[in-house]
Amino acid sequence: MTIVKLNNKKELKWRLIFSISGIFLAFLIVACGFIYSQAVGLKHSILSTENVIQEERAKSAELKSRLFTIIDPQMIDNIAAKKGLVKDNNPQWVFVSL
């Protein structure tokens, strides 16, 4: 009786190589999905932060407008006139030393 043995070492070697390659490929696919997810999340964070910055710039512009309206020299003169204040052209300062 003749027993035919196949070269199992060569076949086992190729199976091992393909198995390791498959596992590595699956790991790379999962890693790419994770990285993509992180990139999309970062993009949304950046866009929301840009929106907040634009809103804050608009608020800042409104506050500056109100401030410049309040400290307008003509407005200050009108308020002083309404309160009965008179502009002193030659002020004399009193200094107190401690």
Describe this structure in words.
There is one protein chain. The protein is mainly α and 98 residues long. The protein has one domain (8-81). Helix content is 74%, strand content 0%. It has two helices and no strands. The longest helix is centred in the middle third of the chain and has 63 residues, at 8-70. The protein is rod-shaped and about 130 Å long.
Layout of strands and helices, then pairs:
Elements: H1 8-70, H2 73-82
Number of strands: 0
Radius of gyration: 40 Å
First CA to last CA: what distance? 124 Å
Give the number of helices: 2
Order of helical and strand elements: HH
Percent helix among the residues? over 70%
- Number of structural units classed as domains: 1
Beta-strand residue fraction: under 5%
Q: If you average the pLDDT, what whole number results?
A: 89
- Runs with pLDDT <50, length 5+? none
Tell me about the largest β-sheet.
Answer: none
By secondary-structure content and strand pairing, the structural class works out as: mainly alpha
Quaternary structure type: single chain
Shape assignment: rod-shaped
